[in-house]
User: What shape does this take?
Amino acid sequence: MRKKVRVVGLSLGDPFHPLSRSGVNFSLFSRLRDQCDLVDVFDLDLRGITKACVALATFSPDRRRWGNRLHQNAWSFDIRTASARRALEGLDRDFDLIFQDGAMFHPPLDIGRPFVSYHDSNVVLAAKAGELSQGAHYGGGALRRAIARERRVYNSASLVFTMSDWLKDSLIADFGVAAEKIVTVYAGTNLPVQDFEKEYDGKTVLFVGRNFERKGGAVLLEAFRRVRKNIAGAKLIVVGPDTTQNEDGVEFVGRVTDKQQLAAYFRQASIFAMPSFYEPFGIVFAEAFAYKTPCIGSDTCAMPEIIGDGEGGFVVPVGDSAALADRIMKLLGDRELARRMGEFGNRRARERFNWDSVVAKMVFHFTRLVDSNENQRMSNAENANDLA
Assistant: This one.
């Protein structure tokens, strides 16, 4: 039996904290630990005096823009890259490859091991997405330099894993990455996929998201006002944002970190709606599918790919509250349609959007890569012996 591939992970944020990167880190690295020999994982996030200095250098009175600038700049990239070198050079165990989450640093190439990377978006897509995206602060020379940094990561990697074909297409078109080394593996839900008899009450719409503005919260509220005029008793539950507004039929419940409580909201809802302006992937749609809840999202980013217009729900034009209201009313008014779409989404979550299968695809390619490199080394050694 072949030994498990020995992997060193490089992460931003605590790799095993349940809430790190909205649960992605915990789910991803836990599965890697199960399916590989995970030698170690290093959190390269900025801390202490280093973070304070970079924060001062990137200050903006706009708190959201300041946060983006703090994490996405050449200084932070170089600091993380230097941290990656120190971490790898200090290891006391051998390893086969480096697994890097994201493109916000670059592992050293002279370590003599291949590296692979995993991504949800890139700087070009973020910069194109408008003022509400994480790339809104980029422009001119800063954008060109950021593109150059990311291009170096993608083109140095032996394999690039993406959460969507939307991103894969951009890496090919915008960064010149060879198509044959990009593998779309998707991402998993951070809630368990459930099989149960769901009741669709024809009234309850659910929104889950911290960034209410970027995720289309205002558009959804405008659409819901139309819905309330046509469907008596319709209600909208808003989970995530720290805001309290007085809106007829709308319940703002704030941030929910307890998974059982969050699952209860998904189980209760007839529809999940999040008409984002920009969404790097949108794992929350997969979480809705886990509870047989049909989804409505925007016709941009990876949302059409996740939902499947007319299959697991609907997609509507970005910012179009009238179209959103129409689709909400269609699903609330047709419980059998909602059930069919919810069942479709549930199957999609089982087959595609679960972390076990996502990581299994990665590990399959890890093994092929390591075996190929080993065969190449053996062939080179044999050729050298023949020449001697």
Summary: DSSP finds 14 helices and twelve strands in the chain. The mean pLDDT is 91. The longest strand covers residues 37-43. The two ends are 34 Å apart (CA to CA).
